Amino acid sequence: MTNITPRVEPDITESTRTLALQASGRGKRPPRSAWRLMLPTPTPWLVLGLVLAAVIALFGILGPLLVTDPTTIRDIGMTPPSGEHLLGTTQTGQDVLAQLAYATRGSLQIGLLVGVLATVLSLVFGIYGAYRGGLVDEGFSLLSNVFLVIPGLPLVIVIAGFVPREARGWWTIAIVLAITGWAAASRVLRAQTLSIRSRDYVAAARVSGERSWRVITVEILPNLLPVIASQFVGAVIAAILAEAGLAFIGLGASNSATLGTMLFYAQNGFALSLGAWWWFVPPGLIIALFGMGLALINFSIDEVIDPKLKDVRLHRRRAQRARRLERTNRS
Amino acid sequence: MTTSRRPVLTVDGLSVVYETESPVHAVSDASFELGAGEILGLAGESGCGKTTLAYAINRLHRPPARIAGGQVLFHDASGETIDVLGLAPDALRRFRWSKLSMVFQGAMNALNPVTSIRAQLHDTIRAHRPRTSRAEAERRSIEVLERVGVDPARIGSFPHELSGGMRQRVMIAMAMILEPQVMIMDEPTTALDVVVQRDILREIVRLKDELDFAVIFITHDLPLLLEISDRIAIMLQGRIVELDAADRLYRDAAHPYTRKLLGSFPSLSGSRGDFIRTGVMADETPGGAS
Amino acid sequence: APGGDSGATASDADTLITVGGQGDMQINFNPFSPSSIGGVGTIYEPLFFINKVGDAEPEPLLGVDQSWNEDGTVYTVTVRDDVTWSDGEPFTAADVAFTFSMLKDNPSINNIGFDGEVAADGDSVAFTFDSPSYVKGPDILNTVIVPEHLWADVSPTEFLDEQPVGTGAFELADFKPQAFTLAANPDYWGGEPELKAIRYISLSGNQAQADALAAGTIDWQTSPVPDIQNVPDRYPGYVNVTANQNQTVLASCASAEMGCSGPQTDPAVRQALSLAINRDQVNALAFQNTSTDISPTFVLLANQEQWISPSVVDPVVPTTPQADQARALLEGAGWALGGDGIYAKDGERLSLGVEVVTGWTDYITTIDTIAAQAREAGIEVVPVQSSWNEWTDKKQRGNFELAIDSLAQGPAPDPYYVYNNFFATTVPVGESSGNNFSRYADPDVSAAVEALQALAFDDTAAREPLMATIQDRIVADLPYIPVLTAGTSSQWNVAKFDGWPTDDDLYAFPAVWSRLDSAEVFKKLSPTGE
Amino acid sequence: MTAVEVSGLGKEYVTREGLRRRRLHAVDDVSFDLVPGRTVALVGESGSGKSTIAKLLTRLERPSSGAIHVRRGDGTPVSAKEYRRHVQMVFQDPFASLNPFHSIEHHIARPLRIHHRTRGAAETRERVLQMLERVNLTPAESFLHRRPHELSGGQRQRVAIARALAPGAQVLIADEPVSMLDVSIRLGVLNLLARLQREDDLAVLYITHDLATARHFSDEILVLYRGRIVERGPADAVILDPHHDYTKLLAMAAPDPERVGKVVAGEIAFDRSRIDNTTCYDHARGEWVGSAVPAGV
Amino acid sequence: MRFLLRKLAFYAIALWAALTINFALPRLLPGNPVDILLAKLQQRGGAVSDDTRRAYALLLGGDDQTPLLQQYVDYLGNLLRGDLGVSVSYYPAQVTDVISTSLAWTIALVGIATVLAAILGVVLGALAGWRPGSWLDSLVPATTLLSAVPYFWLALLLVYLLSLQLGLLPGSGGYNVVLTPGWNWPFISSTIQYGFLPALTIVIASVGGWLLGMRNMMVSTLSEDYIMTARAKGLPERQILMRYAARNAVLPSVAGFAISLGFVVSGSVITEQVFSYPGIGSKLLAAVTNNDYALMQGVFLYITLAVLGANLVVDLLYGLIDPRTRKG
Ligand SMILES: Nc1ncnc2c1ncn2[C@@H]1O[C@H](COP(=O)(O)OP(=O)(O)OP(=O)(O)O)[C@@H](O)[C@H]1O
Ligand SMILES: Nc1ncnc2c1ncn2[C@@H]1O[C@H](COP(=O)(O)OP(=O)(O)OP(=O)(O)O)[C@@H](O)[C@H]1O
Ligand SMILES: [Mg+2]
Ligand SMILES: [Mg+2]
Fold first, then answer.
1. Which of A208-212, C204-208, E161-165 ranks highest by mean pLDDT?
2. Best label site of B20, C269, D95, E244, fewest CB within 10 Å?
3. pLDDT confidence of D294, banded at 50, 70, 90?
4. pLDDT of residue C220 exceeding 60
5. Domain limits of chain E?
6. What's the complex ipTM?
7. What's the pLDDT at C501?
8. Interface test mutation site (partner B, options A11, A329, A330, A331, max chain B beta carbons within 10 A)
């Protein structure tokens, strides 16, 4: 499990405006579409993040179509990478690259499902609760706080221990992970919703006669998109890591290939002790790189949520120039 | 227009540029003199560069802002003249607050929320007079709090425990704790209620009379400036377009912008200014231009 | 006593370090408790030691002599008379009688199912049975004896026995949750062992054990290690010994009469699958080539070969696949090849699920390998992973098609035990099956097994025809599809100690977890001084 | 023509501090009428309850006591469903009252659609353009697709006014509509409001703490202090001839350029603890109303 | 005071929720754990009396006669008496006894590692945020890789490299088993030596989050007015950094500390497995593999209790460093 980033809670309600000001400050017309404003600015780190995430996602989506059957057994066990098997073979001569492709797909599937489920839960408990206020909000926020302090993975392990193996399909694992993983996002969303809810444009919409659901979905939600995106991305990383952990201790989804189960088999096949790094290292590396890709995307989304961060980056070079100019001025 | 009093601060041709993609000349060629014990008002609409100017005087501007030219000279009471823009970092640190202190635009948030008022008053003294004893620092802190009308018993409070008006008073107390010769006040009362604002203005004028420091008072509330300032500078797009004694500026302003600004304020007891309730509108600015 | 300092009497050079458990250990030296962490054989001794990998001759320990009466109903064991418990009390035949009556009184710990009468008389103990019971002798000899004067007043099922008092060559010196140490018993009747201390440490999992071996922090362990064929090179100072005792099988729910369903109830299917398996490949991929041949009669080839009936045509299962033969067999039994390359009959595809426990990676690999091989013969094999409990439950209730498992050997090296356990008695699907989860039922086999019980192990002439009957039937019916005889590999430190069993002199089964055997090994070890 | 009659309006907030509850009378027994073509100004210091009254009038909050009756010109009451078509509001902060995410068109089109003022996209677009032109945002087409952040503060406030008027509102609540704007454009917005009021014969409630604009922009002034009205009457009368101590304090505190250089340290500070809010001077009647009429007046 | 009461009330509710989840889980999920447990108990030589059956039925459900509410009350009563049942895999030991020895190990390991990671991350984050654009700051995004690495994978790699290949540190166990546990230096130094790699894993994998959070918060804080005031006051830079900027910026990190503890405990369950560390995580896994439901539930309760306790402590301490919360 990853640790969480202690999250700054910036004033999201100001962010669009500040971003627009920044855009105009750069001498450009601020972009017409609000959607465009909410896109993170392309920085080398973001590009790296997108490339990492996209390449790995593509590998998971298209990889299985291109590789050989990952279950095919060959007499050549544990062969190092070669022209024939680009990433070598496992103990039973199965092609590591092929397994990696399927396992990546499996992990992505779980990560995505958990991300979606956890986000939906956090939207319901965070946004709806905060919008309604009163007892509903008290109840929802108590619930999410309780879920936040109850340690997730041990709970998941206990649940997985109770669920019979054959019922432990990948979606069961996903649901369990989602149920134990929505609370942090919900808390962040709640705080942001509370601040947006007190904004005049929400009151204005109500005065115009908008209905509650429309106020939530049309007036509040779009402004939360960067936060939601960031929480979603975070949930996907956490889910992939958690599933890998579960699979590694033998509690993962039964009969489904994920990067975690791959590591589990590599570990049981003494891959590391035998120096078969090509079997042990790639699955972990894919998780780490994919996680890094998503985290870098989040890093850039953070700039949308809190434009001060962007300011710092934008001004970095200019500040240096300003300092230099000032120095030459003086002397 | 120069002042008849002994100058404490001379700003000469000061220019500040924000080095953004298209550089913003926030302050261009600003020159004025501040006399000892004088209140100099600085007015202008939002974004004209008032705050930038105030920061630049104390070299508080942060990159990407840079001082593109000009001079800031501080004429110490001792007779020495300090070139503020040329001070080395440590000398600058010592100069700040002891000679020239500031009360900021967002004074509501200018106090550190996690330490007590006492700690913040004390560290101001200690930073400049390291040898001050605790007791002495405490005595001095209580004294200035009393001066601005804050109950000294509140010295152990944290900022969030004080009302906005009290916080502003604490800021003013802090600004005078080292008895500086100049105080720059950047919209010190805009966030406050009219009644409270009045109390604080009265306090500032009284303290100034007692302690004889000079004040640069920044606001966009021209009627207010007219009431308290000796002289008023009008800023437009980074330039000081007019600088004159308050009453003269009110009665016969030279610059059209000044006149327009004055016209924007309907008088409480007098005529309506440019406000038209009935009849044809002369000055309803058409949209499009922002 | 626990808490004592083991370091005072034993130096590192004469302390043997081995694996005791996983995680924190909970103190429990009750030899009859399933959660017992140690002491069987080392602290508590049995009457005799029977080497399952050697010939069947029992070696005297607490007993010095044993014999059956004429008709096999009374078993008399004479006990040693110069033995004292480690608390100084003398050991007597009464302790033996006490131990067995205690077992009889507490069914939950009576693992050997002792149902006779026991009586001590001087230095001999008599075990009396209602019917001839030669086959029960080895169980009696293997049971460890506890002191009556300490055990008479405790509940043997819940007794934790934190300060064990035994007669064995070692005593408990020190217990900590991460390790406990046994120290040599200076007053041991057989003389103080040269090995001064044994430290059992906690290590979780195969990887940790392999790592410990690589780091040289452990002297004896029994678990698979990487690159098992090259242990002396990879782990200098260590050798590997493999003993092949576990007959790996694909057990089928075989008997349609008992309620089994699925293609595997057809003997032709079982035979065909057996023919389709490439055992060489399985051995290489799943077992690092440590497994050995298996006999379809389930007589252990290593030390019981003499019991294979000459009437069995193929006493050893061929290791190369015969897919053509398998296809012919299936077609002869009415199966027809379907469009997907898999045989089918009456609309039923020849698809077999094999139950396996999650995490048993060598078995999972075995099934994966067999699945690929069986496809060549038009048979689909699908692994079904579940937890140990569910796997056990499915086997017990007959809710499975095939299950990979190994056939447990008996207390003595004789095929009788396998036949009695796995082929003799049966119950319908849904009821708990006991050992014979294939639910194989054949009246001739059952009768022959029963007849074997009344015969002494050395009554070769009378036993051979019965063996032939059993073996002919089970080789034809194949309720358990033989795969290989899996090896149990141990690695030990020959640099530090002498006296280990060798392939030539396998005086005990060389697994450290086989406690009676490892106790024998400990007594024979001597530190080299390194 | 819609008129609003507010009688005995009260709003009580219950604030919880841990286990203790505190009642706060934000608004207490306030009555006034909003009549077509007339502007009522509501002045008072921060926290006196001005915005609370606005929220009650726009039904963002429910009154704890009293009633708000809205009637058409013919005297028929306006139903709850139609309420928001008749009563609309302009908020204080133009940077906060427009959703940064949506286009200007969205902001004006929504009320039209909600209140079925238009049918079909084309008609809606037509009406939106018309509204933009009415608030002097020309050329209107160029504003349709802009986002609020592309507009200056004054332009935004015009959009907010257009939005409020879009459903055909007859009663407009303007809560400090210009206090967040730059001084130089404040009058422009107020002039626009005045023009629209004339054209549509609107009833306007103008909430402000700026006495000067209150005086010139409104017909009647209500001075609010701690939730209660302490002085009411025609605009000039209240400002030029304040009776209640609180009104005097307000008038004195308001900057007045006529008093150039008048702020002196000696100016007496008011003792605010003496001010009481249970009495009210009504200029129209020329007398004190309320529980205790202060002596010496 | 009110603040305190509110907090205590919240933790009481959270604890109650955990207990109730524990009660509900076996009853909601398919399968009948009582039967498995009793079968296993019998297998282990346990006598299954009616009392035993009822005790397990209380713990795990499966008692159809008693009304659910009564079961719930009895269950809570049992917990209050510290009766978590008997562990099957360690039969006949009590669950509480089985757990108590391992708890200290986990608390020490996770506690120390988390504190180290937090301090390291916060300090580096503060420095990076203090001088945005410095070389330290430009490395910040790279630390995201660290937080995305699977704990156990990193642990195995570290064991392989540092322990097996280089032989620098022991790769498994909690201390040198030759030593006698207690407050003696050889033992303590050995626990440090053995705890180093697991702690390193936790630190590496969690330091990135702290760093990033602190750095971002620092950037936000630097634009606050009170920082500008501090500059204008002519305070020394060090003092501005420590007493004004970092002091305020660290608040969310402190608030997040307790919550992150829960996450780190989770991560350490698997890390402990890799290092054969004698902590509570390995107990949990042992319980799961052995279907020792009573132990499983017991471990979960203990972990929850520990995390809740840590949260409470941090929450109370938070009141000390952020005066604004004291008002409640
Ligand atoms: N960090 C910055 N980067 C770029 N431009 C800036 C920055 N800060 C201020 N500016 C620009 O400099 C000009 C002057 O700003 P300044 O804050 O001094 O105005 P002001 O007169 O104080 O306004 P207000 O009355 O709103 O406080 C403005 O046009 C503003 O957009
Ligand atoms: N939702 C609420 N819950 C509790 N108290 C409230 C709430 N809204 C307003 N109040 C209180 O009611 C009183 C009146 O508030 P209101 O916003 O009406 O003042 P105002 O006159 O509009 O002030 P300002 O000039 O600052 O806008 C204040 O004391 C405020 O704290
Ligand atoms: Mg400013
Ligand atoms: Mg208000």
1. A208-212
2. B20
3. very low
4. yes
5. 95-286
6. 0.80
7. 92
8. A329
Distances (CA, A) of B265 to D178, D186, D210, D257: 12, 9, 10, 9
Which two three-digit tokens encode residue C490?
A: 């141990």
The DSSP element (H or E) to which C238 belongs, if any, is strand C238-252
The number of beta carbons lying within 10 Å of the beta carbon of residue E239 is 15
Query: C413 and C362 in contact (C-beta within 8 Å)?
Result: no
Distance from CA of E245 to the nearest CA of B (A): 9
Whether B12 and B145 map to the same domain: the answer is no
Among the three residues B157, B179, B201, which one is the final residue of a domain in this structure? B179
Would you say residue A322 lies in a domain? no
The total number of residues written for chain B in this structure: 290
Count: domains in chain B:
2
Residues B199, B281 share a domain: yes
Are the beta carbons of D203 and D170 closer than 8 angstroms? Answer: yes
Assign E145 a pLDDT band (cuts: 50, 70, 90). Answer: confident
In the numeric block, which tokens belong to residue C225?
């290690």
Return the best residue to mutate from B24, B60, B66, B218 for the ligand 1 pocket (most ligand atoms within 8 A of CB): B24
Tell me how far the alpha carbon of residue D185 lies from the centroid of ligand 3, in angstroms. Answer: 18
Q: Which residues partner with C175 through β-bridges? A: C180
Measured distance CA(D264)–CA(D268) in Å, rounded = 9
Q: Which domain holds residue B249?
A: 1-92+182-290
CATH 3.40.50.300 fits D2-256+268-290, yes or no: yes
What local confidence, expressed as pLDDT, does residue A22 receive? 61
Q: Which CATH architecture has domain E95-286?
A: Orthogonal Bundle (1.10)
Whether B48 and B156 map to the same domain: the answer is no
- Pick from C365, C484, C320: nearest CA to A93: C365
Q: How confident is the model at residue A20 (pLDDT cuts 50, 70, 90)?
A: low
Question: Does some domain include residue A4?
Answer: no
Q: What values do phi and psi take at A60, rounded to 5? A: -70, -35
Q: What angle in degrees, to the nearest 10, is found between the helix axes of A221-248 and A12-25?
A: 110
- The answer to whether the beta carbons of residues B103 and B113 sit under 8 Å apart is no
For residue E187, list chain C residues with Cβ-Cβ distance below 8 A.
none
Rounded CA separation A134/A139 (Å): 9
Residue A28 maps to a domain: no
E235–B112 CB contact, under 8 Å: no
Evaluate whether residue A68 is within a structural domain: yes
Same structural domain, B282 and B186: yes
Measure CB to CB from residue B158 to each of E229, E251, E323 and give the nearest one.
Answer: E323
Q: Above 70 in pLDDT, residue C75?
A: yes
Q: Where are the domains of chain D?
A: 2-256+268-290
Residue B103 lies in a domain: no
> Relative to the CA of B54, which ligand 1 atom is closest?
18
* Residues E121-126, mean pLDDT to the nearest whole number: 91
Residue C251 pLDDT level (bands cut at 50, 70, 90): very high
What's the pTM? Answer: 0.82
Residues C246, C291: Cα–Cα separation, whole Å: 9
8-state DSSP, C190: T
C157, C181, C200, C389, best to mutate vs chain E, most E CBs in 10 Å = C389
**Which of B151, B179, B207 is the C-terminal boundary of a domain?**
B179
Q: How far is the CA of B47 from the centre of ligand 3 (A)?
A: 7
- Give the CATH number of the domain where residue A166 resides: 1.10.3720.10
CA separation for the pair D97, A205 (Å, rounded) = 9
Q: For chain A, what is the domain count?
A: 1
Angle among Cα D116, D117, D119 to the nearest 5 degrees reads: 75
DSSP label of B35: E
Sites in chain B below the pLDDT cut of 70: 1-4, 106-108, 271-290
B221 assigned to some structural domain = yes
